[in-house]
Amino acid sequence: MREGITLACTDCKNRNYRTNKNKKSNPERLELKKYCKFCRQHTIHRETR
Predict the structure, then answer these.
(1) DSSP calls for 1-49
(2) NCBIfam families, from UniProt (predicted)?
(3) What residues have CB less than 8 Å from 45, skipping those under 6 apart?
(4) Dihedral (C-alpha) 11, 46, 44, 32: value to the nearest 10 degrees?
């Protein structure tokens, strides 16, 4: 059920983080506020396809 996903920064579009989520309990895309080392600030990171 758990599947690996990649999180990308919404500002610079760099793919910074890898994590996994349960597709059955969370079918929608994941959004987390995380630190982007390229932007040097906390930004929203979204799940990519």
Answers:
(1) -EEEEEEEETTT--EEEEEEEETTT--SPPEEEEEETTTTEEEEEEE--
(2) PRK00504.1, PRK00595.1, rpmG_bact
(3) 7, 8, 9, 10, 16, 17, 31, 32, 33, 34, 36
(4) -160
Query: What would the pLDDT profile of 12-32 be if each residue is shown by its tens digit?
Result: 999 999 999 999 999 999 999
Residue whose structure tokens are 């760099």: 14
Task: Give yes or no for a contact between 49 and 11, defined as CB atoms under 8 angstroms apart.
Answer: no
Q: What single letter denotes the amino acid at residue 2?
A: R
pTM of the predicted structure, to 2 decimals? 0.86
